[in-house]
Design goal:
endopeptidase fold (from Nostoc punctiforme); two-stranded antiparallel sheet; 6-stranded antiparallel β-sheet; globular
Length: 170
């Protein structure tokens, strides 16, 4: 039995496509990023995002740093602490940790900081879930709605207040 060269090429191409697809997985249904399963740094980012998303629905509590209640920096403190990343427990101090990055280039697991005015201090922090064509999705704790996931790029409240971003993960 002989196999035509064109059939062999088809079979090889098919096998390559199947094997290459298994090397990638998505972080979550709400994320457009594709993360290489073999890259430990990207795995950590995916784990951080997944853990943060599990906190959605927790109530807001001023100075709260546990699932019983979070404020914004308490949430990022708690999430990072559970992944062996030490952060201060207030947003102003967190805004000085890690590496500065362009807020338009944030990746899953990065932190975005907000100011009410250019000269004002940081008053809020959020953890990035994804950054794609649809905008930047974050998990954060708001005083009015507790821990939520939302697209800050489409928010008339949050978008103009984006001041900076930091990467505290490898």
């Amino acid at each position: 039995m002989s196999i035509k060269p064109s059939n062999l090429l088809f079979v090889l191409l098919y096998c390559f496509m199947i094997s290459s697809c298994t090397a990638f997985r998505t972080v979550s249904p709400s994320t457009s990023e594709v993360i290489a399963a073999t890259n430990p740094a990207d795995q950590l980012r995916a784990q951080v995002v997944s853990f943060a998303q599990k906190q959605v629905g927790a109530k807001y509590q001023y100075a709260g740093r546990s699932p019983r209640g979070f404020d914004c920096s308490g949430l990022t403190y708690y999430v990072m602490k559970n992944h062996d990343v030490q952060l201060p427990s207030n947003s102003g101090m967190q805004s000085k940790e890690g590496r500065p990055i362009d807020p338009r280039k944030v990746r899953a697991g990065d932190l975005v900081f907000f100011k009410r005015s250019k000269l004002g201090g940081v008053f809020h922090v959020a953890l990035v879930v994804s950054n794609g064509a649809e905008g930047i999705r974050v998990v954060h704790s708001t005083s009015s709605r507790g821990v939520i996931e939302e697209n800050i790029s489409q928010s008339t409240y949050w978008k103009p207040k984006i001041a900076s971003a930091r990467s505290v993960l490898p």
